[in-house]
C-alpha cells in the first residue's frame, strides 16, 4: 500500500483508464461539497464501466461477478457541483479470484488529486456465491491485466 504522501502526489498519468463524470446538484451535502457516500458510488461506477467495456462482464448474466470485500478512501481536497470529475482507475494487484483497484478522483482542469480510494473485489460464481477453485474467468483476468501497474524493475 502506498503512503498517504504518495497517494496525494498521484497524477492522471499514474492511471490507465479515465472516466468523466458530471457532478449533480444532489451530489453536494449541506457543507456544499460532494458527500462522502458519492465517492464510493463513483468508484464502483468506474470499476463496473471498465469491467463491462474491457473485461466481458455482463452484470445480469456473467457466470462470475465481483463482490467488494474491502474499501477505503483518502480525501485531500473537496469537489462540488457543478464541477466535472475525472475518475482514474488502475489495478494494483491481481490474485487467483481477487483484484485490488486504486481509484483517484480529479477535478477536470485542476491538477491536484481530490481523493484516492481502494476497492478489493473477489470474483465469485453466480451459482454458488463462492470463489471458483480455478480462479477468475480468463477474459476478465486479461482485461484487468491491461491496467495492472507493473512494479519498477530493479537496476543491477
TrEMBL record:
| Domain of life from the UniProt record | Eukaryota
Q: Name one GO molecular function term.
A: fatty acyl-CoA hydrolase activity
For this UniProt record, the keywords arranged alphabetically read as follows: Hydrolase
One Pfam family linked to the record: 4HBT_2
Q: Which SUPFAM superfamilies match?
A: Thioesterase/thiol ester dehydrase-isomerase (SSF54637)
- Family annotation (InterPro entries): 4-hydroxybenzoyl-CoA_TE (IPR050563), HotDog_dom_sf (IPR029069)
Q: Which family does it belong to?
A: Belongs to the 4-hydroxybenzoyl-CoA thioesterase family.
Name-wise, this protein is: HotDog domain-containing protein
